[in-house]
Amino acid sequence: MWDTFIVYPLTNVLLWIYQFVGGNFGVAIIIFTILIRLVTHPLMASQIKSSQGLQELQKSKKWQDIQKKYKGDKEKLAQEQMAIYKEMGINPFGSCLPTLIQLPIIFGLYQSIMLALAASPSQLLILTRSIYSMFDITKVIPLNSNFLWMNLGQPERLYLSFLPTIGIPLLAVIVAITSYFQQKLITPPTTNPGDQTGNMSKMMNIYMPLLMGYFAMTYASGLAIYFIASNLVGIVQYAALGKLDWRNLLPKSIKGEVKPK
Length: 261
What we know:
The chain has helices spanning 2-20, 25-39, 41-59, 61-69, 74-88, 97-117, 121-130, 137-140, 170-186, 196-218, 221-240, 252-255; strands spanning 146-147, 150-151, 158-160, 163-168. By secondary structure, the protein is mostly helical. It has one domain. It has a two-stranded antiparallel sheet with strand order 1-2. A two-stranded antiparallel ribbon has the order 3-4. The longest helix has 23 residues, at 196-218. It is elongated, with a radius of gyration of 22 Å.
């Protein structure tokens, strides 16, 4: 069922875009990413709403009072927090939901890229069986896996003339940086250092970019292209909604000195 409903449809969409752009698989992945971002835009809007709701809630007197009252009782504090979330109609995990929903797409896309590139005879046989009848197989296979300096079916490494034997995982670094920027820009800072939800979001801002960077360094470079394009498009979407605040990237001590225009 995973292949039928996730991997094969993604593979065929990629192949259709690949044909449309004249046989450039890297460009096909970028366009595919934009389409995925457009489809999941309502989730991003929900994420922004949840983040803003959490920020406003943390500023309320009622929220701050229970933080002080149950400071030494974490179980009771968690119960009271959930009661307030329910009362205010706020999903405390709403800001993390779009990221979690993307994980099946990420895994499915990785398998689709590997399937489409068909690096072995067995994969080529599976690919020919998974391609929809609307395609002329002779015009699709084999795919051109080269994009810039990369083989999209292999982990990316950049070899410089003065370091010919050491490959630099440049895309993995860019993935980690753009993932961190996106997380910071779309997640408002917590106003209460003792808040569990705020601390969880803070941890996500650190661990998710590292995880994405690890995936980009370890798996096919086509996946890294998806990560970077997705992060950049996400930042553009956030800016288009008028919610972009570059001050979120600043340390708290500096941010307090920088006033919005």
